[in-house]
Specification:
The protein has helices at 24-32, 66-69; strands at 2-5, 14-20, 40-46, 53-57, 60-64, 72-76. By secondary structure, it is an alpha+beta fold. The protein has a single domain, classed as SH3 type barrels (Roll), CATH 2.30.30.90. It has a 6-stranded antiparallel β-sheet with strand order 1-6-2-3-4-5. A hairpin with a 2-residue loop joins β4 (53-57) and β5. The termini are close together.
Length: 80
């Protein structure tokens, strides 16, 4: 089990959200969009120019900027 940020996930990989870093307003906004600790996050793909990412969270697709994804920590089963 390793803890990484969501922007470090390769396309198709999943993890369980363990926390959200950043300012209170950014954390609140992400949580209002369903990015909650304990939820599964799958990084579906990155846009052709590398930003944003398409993520699957709680049964819906969400686009996250790379800077936002870097604030989300996830637990994965992959070895680093």
């Amino acid at each position: 089990m390793s803890i990484i940020t969501a922007d470090q996930l390769p396309p198709g990989a999943s993890g369980i959200i363990s926390g959200i870093r950043g300012e209170t307003s950014i954390r609140r906004r992400l949580m209002e969009m369903g990015v909650l600790p304990g939820s599964k996050l799958t990084l579906v793909k990155w846009a052709p120019l590398g930003d944003p990412a398409e993520c699957l969270i709680r049964g819906y697709k969400l686009s996250l900027r790379r800077t936002e994804a870097a604030l989300i920590t996830v637990e994965t089963n992959q070895e680093r």
